[in-house]
């Protein structure tokens, strides 16, 4: 472990005025990292440096930006095991999940390195004689990125790679729970030759993010996190004309039709609801099962869930790692207490787990007889907790699926083409899966939700082009 991770401002490492510490959620005796907390002066200097570096970075040839991003992707690939181990120690996801996250970061940088030279425009004839029209895409400017702890490497990467590819400057403010893995991204950028001011790292808690939002030199904000925080950011940014991209929560339904492949549906429920300890915005939290197969589905789900092992994220026998922090364990436990007070019927789990090391371990939990009036089904728990609803028929199942202000991800298991097509049309979510878990995404297509789950352009794919660039229309006469 390095003695202390420093903030990265204008191409240099800065110590800050305070320090923070992160311990392994699987083993509280393991100090993962100590990190410098950015000061208000660091924030001001970072914004000033980004504004200064913007003109030269946006003027740099697309090939030069491509080469830098490609080097970052190659170095991440070379260090996959090392970075995955750090991620697992710091965030608590299992090693296989951590490796998958790091690998996705590799692919993201490689993909957007190519997109740097493919930013399109259009050349059109005017409706007026003797005039040509060019429509160009240009960088939006200085982008503040406030990222969460649940995907602490891939989310900063899938925000940073397109932003830099299209000529923007980036100031990253990661969660204070996962500063060490974010620091590694800053080090990768530095070593790859990113010019001063183009990519910067400010570590600390919400006070740092709040100070960043106060700076007048910010052109855009990309935030991933809770709906409550997202609404606060919007209330401050929108009046100032700051471009916003908000990826918020979900209360994602998985519909299991009467003709579904039972084994695949149960497997998808377990992966979508319990893996990563349920700490995913796309996690399946409401399983809606048609009456004909409901009881058999419950029997299979409980039996399979009972076989899952909760434990140290670095242990190869572990299926589900710890929750990320004591506060998160308290939050999830609070929802379990709410469910007990409301008389919600529990079929499995709902207890903390003791292991050889001191960690924040919690059983996967299954509730039955789901109703949307229950707190556990209205609010995002962000833990390994799922509710099963009984639906009389397909139409009722679809109504339950859409009965939420959230609209991030929704899925259906069915062997009937017409049911699948009907669900795709009826779902109000931004992403729909068929015979797949509600979790998982590709880097070359848009990611994001509707309703209370998101605001502004989507992330990745064409969504990234829309957010990180702005159009300029040019009229040329003879």
From TrEMBL:
Domain Aldehyde dehydrogenase: residue ranges: 14-474
Segments for region (Disordered): 9-28
Keyword Electron transport: no
Protein keywords: Oxidoreductase
UniProt keyword Oxidoreductase present: yes
GO molecular function, one term: oxidoreductase activity, acting on the aldehyde or oxo group of donors, NAD or NADP as acceptor
SUPFAM superfamilies recorded: ALDH-like
Biased composition (Basic and acidic residues): 15-25
Annotated active site: 247
Similarity comment: family membership: Belongs to the aldehyde dehydrogenase family.
Listed PANTHER family: ALDEHYDE DEHYDROGENASE-RELATED (PTHR11699)
Name of the protein in question: Aldehyde dehydrogenase
The organism of origin for this protein: Nitratireductor aquibiodomus RA22
């Amino acid at each position: 472990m390095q003695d202390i991770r420093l903030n990265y401002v204008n191409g240099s490492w800065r110590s800050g005025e305070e320090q923070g510490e992160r311990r392994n959620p699987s083993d509280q005796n393991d100090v993962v990292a100590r990190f410098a907390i950015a000061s208000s002066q660091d924030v001001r200097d970072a914004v000033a440096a980004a504004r200064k570096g913007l003109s030269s970075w946006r003027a740099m040839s697309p090939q030069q930006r491509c080469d830098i991003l490609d080097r970052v992707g190659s170095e991440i690939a070379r260090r996959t095991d090392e970075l995955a181990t750090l991620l697992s120690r710091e965030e608590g996801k299992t090693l296989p999940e951590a490796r998958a996250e790091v690998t996705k970061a590799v692919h993201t940088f490689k993909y957007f390195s190519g997109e740097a030279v493919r930013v399109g425009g259009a050349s059109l004839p005017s409706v007026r004689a003797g005039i040509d029209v060019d429509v160009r895409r240009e960088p939006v400017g200085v982008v503040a990125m406030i990222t969460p702890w649940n995907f602490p490497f891939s989310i900063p990467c899938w925000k940073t790679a397109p932003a830099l590819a299209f000529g923007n400057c980036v100031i990253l403010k990661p969660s204070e729970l996962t500063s060490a893995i974010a620091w590694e991204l800053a080090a990768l950028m530095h070593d790859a030759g990113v010019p001063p001011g183009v990519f910067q790292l400010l570590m600390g808690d919400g006070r740092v993010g709040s100070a960043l939002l106060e700076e007048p030199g910010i052109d855009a904000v990309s935030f991933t996190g809770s709906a409550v925080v997202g609404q606060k950011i919007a209330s401050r940014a929108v009046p100032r004309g700051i471009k916003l991209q908000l990826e918020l929560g979900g209360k994602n339904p998985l519909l299991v039709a009467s003709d579904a492949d039972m084994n695949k549906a149960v497997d998808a429920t377990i992966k979508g609801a319990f893996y990563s300890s349920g700490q995913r915005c796309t996690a399946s939290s409401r399983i809606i099962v048609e009456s004909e197969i409901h009881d058999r589905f419950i029997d299979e789900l409980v039996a399979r869930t009972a076989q899952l092992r909760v434990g140290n994220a670095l242990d190869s026998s572990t299926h589900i790692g710890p929750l990320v922090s004591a506060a998160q364990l308290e939050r999830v436990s609070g929802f379990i207490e709410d469910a007990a007070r409301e008389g919600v019927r529990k079929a499995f789990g709902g207890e903390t787990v003791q292991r050889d090391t001191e960690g924040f371990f919690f059983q996967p939990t299954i509730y039955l007889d789901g109703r949307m009036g229950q707190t556990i089904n209205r609010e995002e728990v962000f833990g390994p907790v799922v509710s099963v609803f009984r639906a009389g028929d397909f139409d009722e199942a679809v109504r339950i699926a859409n009965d939420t202000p959230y609209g991030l991800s929704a899925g259906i298991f069915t062997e009937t083409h017409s049911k699948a097509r009907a669900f795709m049309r009826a779902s109000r979510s931004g992403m729909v899966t068929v015979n797949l878990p509600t979790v998982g995404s590709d880097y070359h297509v848009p990611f994001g939700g509707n309703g209370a789950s998101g605001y502004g352009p989507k992330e990745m794919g064409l969504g990234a082009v829309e957010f990180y660039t702005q159009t300029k229309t040019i009229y040329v006469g003879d």
